[in-house]
Amino acid sequence: MIFAAIAFAAALQPGFISHSMAGAAPAVPQAVQTAPPDRAAPSPTPLPLLLSGQIVDLESGFIVFATGDALKLASGAAITDYGSGAAPAYAISPGIYAVVTLDAASGEIQTVRTSRKPLVVGTPAALVPRRYVVTLSSPKPNPDLAPRQGLHPSILSKAVTVTVTVAVPPNTPFSDDVYMATDTSGWNAQAIKMQRLDGLHFQIRMELRGGSDIRYVFTRGTWSTVERDRAGLQRASRSLFVAGGDAQIIDATVYRWADLQ
Known about the structure:
Layout: H1 2-11, H2 19-22, E1 49-59, E2 62-65, E3 70-81, E4 97-103, E5 108-115, E6 123-124, E7 159-167, E8 179-182, E9 192-193, E10 195-196, E11 201-209, E12 213-219, E13 227-228, E14 238-241, E15 247-253, E16 256-257
Parallel strand pairs: 1-6, 3-5, 7-15
Antiparallel strand pairs: 1-2, 1-4, 2-3, 4-5, 7-11, 8-9, 8-12, 10-11, 12-14, 13-16
């Protein structure tokens, strides 16, 4: 007890450092290792898109389809004949058919295969996702494209009777039927069958709700028999906007069929 008291008193003296304390190193705080958060699985590389249609221009780094859709060509994009795989032996002029490969990641056309005959391959160019289309037109609305107003408007009417009548070319086979292919049907070439009125006219009467906005083209049952424009080129889809009212009348004309040029 006496020796313990002496040791305790000595420890209180200034400058006293015990041998055990002198040899002890101060504790160094250890860094806490936190596991990194799980990384998201890499997104799968999008598959290329195969598109087809008639072209009106192929220069200056762009390919322009008859639908008016312009797509950017990749640097060094290969342009070959669809049948031979070699360079085309003919001029790439308006009306030539083409099948293109669109890289979904870059939005650029990687390959162009051309033909002087219709190609029923891939997705029609008119259905290309809008995010890939190069838009050069003014964003302001075009008054010429304003939807046609309904006839006999009535705020009490929930359904509108829409009558579509189409005149077809004289060379339309009498045994063939005419259909409306619509975006709402997934572009089924036989979505809506029309009734024959006479040798050159077909008609369909539908009940549609006001505000419906439908894109459509006329076919004879397949995409190889779809309508063309006056020049025989692939045309953009038609628009049917149901503005409301009791009745709406649409008169249309098919100038050419794809297989009867």
